Amino acid sequence: MSWTEEDRLLLYCCRTQIDNNTKHKIIKIGRSRIDWNIFLEEARENGISAIVYFKLNKNKKVCSNIPSVIFEELNNDYYFSATKNALIFEELGKFLEAFKEAGIRVVVLKGAALAEKIYGNIALRPMSDIDLLIKEEDLAHTDRLLEMLGYRSADRSVDDIDFTSAYLTTLDYRNTSDNSLSFHIHWHFVNSTIPNESYVKNIKMENIWRDAEKTNIANTETLVMAPHHLLIHLSEHALRVTHSLSKLSFLCDIDQAISFYAEEIDWDRLIDESYRFNLSRMVYLSLYFTSKFLGTPIPEDVLSKLRPKRFSLGEKIFMNRISNNKRFTGLSYLVHLSMNKGLFKKMKFVVRTFFPPRQFIAQRSYIPLSEVSWIHYLRRTNEVFSRLFKSFG
C-alpha cells in the first residue's frame, strides 16, 4: 500500500492549521479522480470522519467537488459523535463530582481531556470509553465509590491486583445495562498487552501527579496532565502494540495538543522526562511522523535530541512501513522488541509475550482465573503470530 490521492486528501483535511497553501492542495486533489467512497471509508477507519467534516464544512470553498451523499455521511458521523459524547460527558460529570466529594484526586486521560479541553469541540474526538487516573492507594476507596454509583469491575477484582505487573494496569468498570459506558480506572498511564519491563519501572508516576494541572471538564474541577507529560503519554499510547500508529487519529491528538499548548510546552522537560522514563524512542517516532504527515511545527532541535543514535533493524522496518502507509496493529512490536537490550532480555520479552501470567489471560478474556486453560494460550499464540507475520510480511 502507498499513499493514494484519497490518503493525501485525508492528511490535509485533518491538519489543525489549514493555511492557504493547504487549501490549494485540497482543491487540486479534490478535482482529481478521487474515489469518494474509499475516502469516506478510510476517514472512518482512521477515526477522523468528524474532524474531516468539521474542517471541510468550515472551508466550504475547498470541498465543492465532494458528492453531496459523501458530505451528508460525514455530517452524520459528526453529529453522531456529538450526541454520543454529550451523553458520555453527562455521566463523566457525575463521576468527577463524586470523586471530588470523596476527596479522591483524579487525572482525566486521553479522549475526555482531549475532546473538551484540547479540541474544544467534543464532537471531534470520538470516544468508546473514559480513562481516569488515580493513585494506587486510592483504588480500594474508588472501587467502593463506583459500586455506590452502580458500577462494578467487569474484568477482575480489586483484591486480585498485582501492582508489580508489567501488563495491564487498569480496571474496567461498567453498570448492569447492556449499553453500559466503560470507565477505565488506571493507576499507571502505561496499560499494555505485552510485558514492558524495559520502561514501565522507569516511569515515575509521582512526577505526573506533581506536574498535573487543574482544569474544568464536564463542568467540574479536575486534573489533566501537564503538556510535556501529555505529549509523552500520547506518544506512548500511539506506539502501543494494539495501536502501532494504525490510525491517523493518534497523530491528530498529538498535532492538536501541540497546537493548543503552543508556547506553553516546555520542550526541555519533555526531552528530559522522555529519557528518564526510557520512552524517548517512542516519543521521537510519534513526533517525527506527526510532523512528517501533518506538518506539525515541532522544533527541529527537539527531534534531533530525541532521535536515537542508531535504529535497530526492527525500528527501520517499522519506520519504512509507516512511511509507505502500511499501517496496522501489531507493527510497533518491532519497536518494543528493540527496547529490550541484549539477547537474553529480547528472548524473555518474546516468551512472555506468548505466555503471559494466567491473571493477564483471565482479565483480558473477562473470565475467572479458574477458567483459564491451554486453549486461551493457543489463541494468544495465534494472535501474536498473526501480528508478527504482518510485521515481517
Tell me which CATH architecture of the largest domain applies here.
2-Layer Sandwich
> How many beta-strand runs?
7
Main beta-sheet strand count, sense and barrel state: 5 strands, mixed
From the structure provided, what is the oligomeric state, counting identical versus distinct chains? single chain
In the CATH scheme, the class of the largest domain would be Alpha Beta
The portion of residues forming beta strands comes to 5-15%
Classify the helix fraction into a percent range.
40-55%
- Overall outline: globular
* CATH third-tier fold name of the largest domain: Beta Polymerase, domain 2
Give the SSE layout.
Elements (H helix, E strand, L loop, with lengths): L4 H9 L6 H11 L5 H10 L3 H10 L9 H35 L4 E3 H9 L10 E5 L5 H10 L3 E2 L16 E5 L7 E5 L18 H7 L1 E5 L2 E5 L2 H12 L9 H14 L5 H10 L3 H15 L5 H7 L6 H11 L9 H6 L4 H12 L3 H8 L8 H19 L1
Parallel strand pairs: 2-5
Antiparallel strand pairs: 1-2, 3-4, 4-5, 6-7
Describe the overall structure.
With 393 residues, the chain is of the alpha+beta class. The protein is built from 18 helices and 7 strands. The protein has 2 domains: 1-66; 67-392, Beta Polymerase, domain 2, CATH 3.30.460. Strands 1-2-5-4-3 form a 5-stranded mixed beta sheet. The mean pLDDT is 92.
Quick summary:
The protein has two domains: 1-66; 67-392, Beta Polymerase, domain 2 (2-Layer Sandwich).
